[in-house]
Write a structure and sequence with these properties.
It contains 19 helices and nine strands. The chain is of the alpha+beta class. The strands form two sheets. Strands 1, 2, 3, 6, 7, 8 and 9 form a seven-stranded mixed sheet that branches. The radius of gyration is 24 Å and the shape is globular.
Length: 436
């Protein structure tokens, strides 16, 4: 009896010792479906890492950006893992605010990360955030309306073809717009689309010396083309339409084409939500023959702030959440269609995923067509496809977006919008010390 009591006492002491040495890491994340699902599956992580406890701070996207930016800039140390985007990673890494992810484990297979996605999350060849979910943009179009117009969509069309098709597919009497594109102002709204589009027209935000380029003909060609196309073939009130508004229009059968995020493919092809689910096909974003397509690149990723005192435990979690094994776990629990997309080459080689997601190949081709390190035809001093990875871009991008949205609404001319964009960009870059 005494021996059993002694053994029980030793076991209790051992358990207490483990509990005392358990590390608790705090994870700040966005409240989207993929992240909520990840939280529900973390028993898999804690069972494999019994010495690590997880605390979650789940926030709406704008609040998340504000909180994590404030915390990392002030070295507040509230979070050990942060959910951040492709925009933040290169900026924060250069500020030495993020730890390089160089201890993700021997079986992590970082080489399997899609190169374009990895490039957007790396500085000087080092990965500073691991992608949980990735996307590009492409064309979603109505096969029936394209056929009715007597046209066949190429896999890699030009803007000239898209504009011609949009005008031919437009049927105002039946409330069908040939094309739906973002018009709502914002650096992540209309400027995500227009910056990516401008790349394909040979435009750039800044030259090699950070001088703004809105006065150059490439930007005039981009914005005039967009405004004319939307006036001829776009929906009424387009200057108020962002992703959600255009998604609703497309699902209701009111758009012949829509160029937007690759993740939208699962929505427009879902018969529960889309009236045209059986009529949709996909193509790469257009080009003008200059070597760049008008598609963007984005990833929600997990990074570790340099101020974390629990970097080893944090890297274990990041490795788990962004691994091939995690994708298999989601597939087992939720089905292959619900696996976080756009991060690993092996997912797109998986026949089960290809069957569950008929848009998979075009999604991967779109992601691979984007190069965040060389986003433009002419050389530039910045990285980022649909954004410029400098801290000032959020404010400047939204200001320019407001001007371009006003041009689309007919409240100012294209020339006036470009002149005011040039002036705003020049003031911002002068104040920031980029130019004298």
């Amino acid at each position: 009896m005494k021996l059993n009591t002694l053994i029980l006492g030793l076991c209790s002491a051992s358990l207490l010792a483990v509990a005392a040495h358990a590390e608790s890491i705090t994870i700040a994340t966005v409240n989207n479906g993929d992240m909520i699902r990840m939280q529900k599956l973390t028993d898999d992580f804690t069972s494999k890492n019994p010495g690590i406890e997880l605390n979650w701070v789940t926030l709406e996207e704008n609040v998340l950006r504000e909180r994590v930016t404030t915390d990392i800039a002030t070295k507040g140390g509230q979070y050990d893992v942060m959910t951040i985007g492709t925009y933040e990673v290169p900026i924060w890494a250069k500020q030495n605010w993020l730890l390089p992810l160089d201890n993700l484990g021997a079986d992590y297979d970082a080489g399997d990360i899609i190169p374009a996605i990895a490039g957007g999350l790396s500085v000087d060849g080092k990965l500073y955030a691991a992608p949980f979910y990735g996307e590009s943009s492409f064309i979603m179009y109505r096969k029936d309306l394209m056929e009715k117009a007597g046209l066949t969509m190429p896999d890699a069309p030009t803007w000239e073809f898209v504009a011609d098709a949009a005008r031919k597919m437009t049927d105002r009497d039946n409330d069908i717009n040939g094309i739906c594109l973002r018009g709502k102002a914002g650096w992540g709204e209309n400027m995500a689309f227009l910056t990516a589009t401008s790349n394909s027209f040979g435009a750039r935000w800044f030259d090699e010396n950070w001088k703004p380029q809105f006065e150059q003909p490439e930007w005039k060609n981009t914005l005039q083309f967009y405004v004319d196309l939307m006036n001829d073939a776009g929906p009424a009130g387009a200057s108020s339409n962002g992703f959600n508004e255009n998604l609703a229009l497309f699902q209701q059968g009111k758009c012949g084409m829509w160029i937007d995020a690759t993740v939208a493919a699962s929505f427009v092809s879902n018969p529960k939500d889309s009236t045209v689910a059986d009529k949709v096909s996909y193509a790469l974003a257009p080009d003008t023959g200059l070597g760049k397509r008008g598609n963007w690149l984005w990833a929600w990723s997990l990074g570790i702030p340099a101020g974390s005192q629990k970097a080893d435990a944090a890297q274990k979690f990041v490795a788990w959440a962004t691994s091939k094994e995690y994708l298999a776990l989601v597939a087992e629990k939720e089905g292959w269609a619900n696996v976080p997309p756009g991060t690993r080459t092996s997912l797109y080689e998986n026949p089960k995923y290809q069957e569950a997601a008929p848009f998979a190949k075009m999604t991967l081709d779109s992601i691979n067509a984007a190069d965040p390190t060389k986003p433009t035809v002419k050389p530039v001093p910045y990285v980022g496809v649909q954004f410029v990875a400098i801290p000032e871009f959020q404010g400047l991008g939204t200001t320019v977006g407001q001007l371009f949205s006003a041009a689309l609404a007919g409240q100012m001319s294209v020339d006036d919008a470009l002149k005011q964009a040039q002036d705003a960009a020049t003031a911002t870059m002068t104040e920031g010390g980029y130019i004298q």
